[in-house]
Design goal:
The structure holds three protein chains of three kinds. Chain A is mostly helical. Chain A contains nine helices and two strands; from the N terminus they run H-H-H-H-H-H-H-E-E-H-H. Chain B is built from nine helices and no strands. Classes of the chains: A mainly alpha, B mainly alpha, C mainly alpha.
């Protein structure tokens, strides 16, 4: 793995192997927490933190972990970091914590984190794993921001709760976009666009 | 808050997949054929109900009395993983036929958002008041999951044969758009019961 | 930071972990399922493709059926004679070997040779086309629909849709498991002997003008091939010829005799056999001509009125 330059480990998670839009992992929070840009950014930040920290932790102990019980150990580590994020959010950002609801604890079972830990961090050094976790987390956050951009703009006429189209639009906005059907629709069309760009 | 309202709420009004967005990954992955959808639904019913019971007992029997609520996430995921492993071994021994039918789906459910999500939801004291309600709630969630999964599998089997779908839309995107229409239909149930 | 709360937390977590671990350990003993060693051995001897051609659910299912229910051990076509021998060794008995077969699509009606009846826009599967339209969407009701049900079902990647609407079988990869035969709703695919050098490329039970009207290369049941074969390997089954590969010598005379071109060459023609075959046919013709001449010579002698009448 010494052949890939360090910065590549970070950038590959952003576009070419974007966790949400290319690898299609972690769709549950992408549908639920993208009703507004603030929620998406909050969720994205939480995922970046957990992904990076757990990759570092897993990579640090990879030499001493027995092969057969590695998955439960990874899950425990990830759960610990998620608990840290959850408690921090409850304390310092209670509004965000309430609107994200149980999707913060559900980061534990987010396929991305366990997949990166198992596939990458278990076999590579700490610095590389940290960058990989940072990259995949940031890629996921970018995906979340993309989805919530359209949902909030069309469903509420605002961006980060700042009115963009004026009050008249806000009262007649496309309400369905911030409701569940809008989530499925937006994500589906975005993935279709990405497929078209990648000529899949 | 009768048990019937809980069932109606969890199956229709606040459907686990179409309103709460839990369990999307297996929803997209396993819903291509009707019989695998059936197998998955049965396995999910098993696991969700059992883990809801154990989580409820763990939360109110151990974590709350000892003021360890912050350990909820870690404890629950540990217990669910162990439970699924246990159930798999039990079914393999007790009923090989059942194991043939749904054995392969059991490990898939361990990291399913729906299971951990339900476990956390049954511990919210303002909505669920006792163990019976917790069990009914969990059963309702799994029935809602099964309903949508089966509906979707039936649609998807036909969808895969259509040649009119544009290439970029094939596979996941068209499935998501179909789910959005299904979700729109289920929106019609909103306000029916309140919980 | 209270030491007590830290210890309680660690203690509770550790205890729950310990209890779960102990329960799982006990369960793995109590619920251990004993598997007959022979089943594992046979599963290992089988190719492991889980194609279902034997009729059982996967290789382990077939292995279990062999050991528990005494099913015929030679049903695995992909495993071939190698697996049959291995199974025989495991079970401690000798098993008869089966001849290798490959799938053959009996239709030459490509899109330019056989027209479609109409522009079919329905479900794009052969089974759908046949269910929705009696006789399918092609103008020949016995011909291949070309929508690829057989291609979808093959697990050995041995059959692919040709550019002109007829699937092509890769005889090297085909193991003769028979899944495509079952998948075809018009029975166009059949398993044929691996050694066959020529094959009938038509499935139609129509004859003569009816066939010519819909397909340029369809068999018109003119029986030319039956007469042309020096080894009497071709016989008619209804309106379609059938080749007996135990008698066929790969001389290729049937291919030459077929005017529409319904018989195709699969492997190389044996030129020496062709010469030999032509010789035999010539001999037969000569013998028949001689017999005819002899019969003609006898008749006038009988028919000529006696001079004294």
């Amino acid at each position: 793995m010494a052949s890939t330059p360090l910065i590549k480990e970070f950038t590959k998670g952003l576009v070419s192997q974007n966790t949400l839009l290319v690898l299609l992992l972690g769709m549950c929070p992408a549908l639920a927490t993208t009703t507004s840009l603030t929620n998406a950014v909050g969720m994205g930040a939480a995922v970046i933190f957990v992904a990076t920290m757990s990759n570092i932790a897993v990579s640090a102990i990879r030499k001493i972990v027995p092969d057969e019980v590695r998955i439960p150990i990874f899950v425990l580590l990830i759960a610990s970091f998620v608990t840290v994020v959850d408690l921090s959010m409850k304390a310092w950002m209670p509004g965000l914590s309430k609107s994200l609801g149980l999707f913060i604890p559900l980061i534990v079972v987010n396929c991305i984190i366990l997949a990166r830990a198992e596939a990458f961090a278990y076999k590579n050094g700490v610095i590389r794993s940290a960058l990989d976790g940072l990259g995949s987390g940031t890629g996921y956050a970018l995906g979340l921001i993309l989805v919530s951009f359209f949902r909030e703009l069309l469903g509420n006429g605002t961006l980060f709760n700042v009115s963009v189209f004026g009050e008249a639009f806000k009262n007649n906005a496309v309400l369905v976009m911030i409701l569940p059907p809008g989530a499925f629709l937006t994500l589906g069309l975005i993935i279709a666009t990405i497929n078209k760009i990648r000529r899949v | 808050m009768t048990l019937l309202t809980i069932i109606i709420f969890t199956v229709f009004v606040n459907n686990v997949i179409l309103s709460q967005f839990l369990g999307i990954c297996p929803f997209m992955g396993v819903s291509k054929k009707l019989d695998s959808a059936l197998g998955m639904s049965a396995a999910v019913l098993f696991v969700i109900v059992l883990s809801a019971i154990i989580s409820y007992l763990l939360q109110f029997g151990v974590l709350v009395p000892l003021k360890l609520e912050y350990l909820q996430t870690i404890m629950f995921i540990l217990v669910i993983a162990a439970l699924v492993q246990f159930v798999e071994m039990f079914i393999k021994k007790a009923s090989p036929a059942l194991f043939e039918a749904l054995g392969i789906y059991l490990p898939l459910i361990t990291t399913n958002c729906a299971v951990l999500g339900t476990a956390i939801m049954v511990t919210q004291k303002d909505k669920i008041h006792n163990l019976i309600e917790a069990v009914v709630f969990a059963t309702g969630i799994s029935l809602g999951f099964a309903l949508v999964l089966l509906l979707f599998a039936a649609i998807r089997e036909r969808l895969d044969l259509e040649t009119g779908t544009p290439r970029p839309m094939k596979g996941l995107p068209i499935a998501l758009v179909t789910a959005s229409i299904l979700s729109l239909a289920f929106l019609g149930f909103s306000g029916m019961v309140k919980m | 930071m209270e030491i007590m709360s830290l210890l309680t937390a660690a203690g509770v977590l550790g205890l729950v972990g310990l209890i779960s671990a102990v329960m799982l350990a006990i369960a793995s003993r109590v619920f251990a399922v004993k598997v007959d060693d022979r089943i594992t051995a046979i599963t290992a001897a089988l190719p492991g493709a889980n194609c279902g051609g034997c009729g059982y659910a996967g290789c382990s299912g077939y292995a279990a059926a062999i050991v528990n229910k005494g099913v015929d051990p030679s049903l695995c076509a992909p495993g071939g004679n190698a697996s049959v021998k291995a199974i025989g060794e495991i079970l401690g008995m000798t098993i008869e070997e089966k001849a290798r077969a490959v799938a053959r699509v009996r239709c030459g009606g490509t899109s330019d040779k056989c027209r479609a009846r109409f522009d079919y826009r329905g479900l794009k599967t052969c089974r759908g086309a046949v269910m929705l339209n009696e006789g399918g969407a092609k103008s020949c009701p016995y011909g291949c629909e070309g929508l690829g049900d057989c291609v979808d079902v093959c697990v050995f990647d041995a059959i692919h849709m040709g550019a002109d609407g007829i699937p092509v079988v890769d005889a090297e990869k085909c193991t003769g498991c028979g899944k495509c035969v079952v998948a075809c709703p018009k029975d166009v695919i059949e398993l044929q002997a691996w050694e066959g050098a020529v094959a009938i490329n038509c499935n139609s039970q129509w004859k003569g003008r009816e066939v010519k009207a819909v397909c340029e290369v369809g068999c018109i049941a003119c029986l030319a091939c039956v007469k042309a074969c020096p080894w009497e390997a071709i016989s008619m089954k209804g309106n379609i010829p059938v080749i007996d590969y135990s008698k066929c010598r790969a001389c290729g005379l049937c291919v030459d005799s077929c005017k529409p071109g319904s018989i195709v060459v699969l492997k190389t023609i044996d030129e020496a056999m062709k010469v030999e075959g032509q010789r035999i046919v010539a001999e037969r013709k000569a013998a028949a001509a001689a017999a005819k001449a002899a019969a003609a010579a006898v008749k006038p002698a009988v028919a000529e009125p006696s001079p004294g009448q």
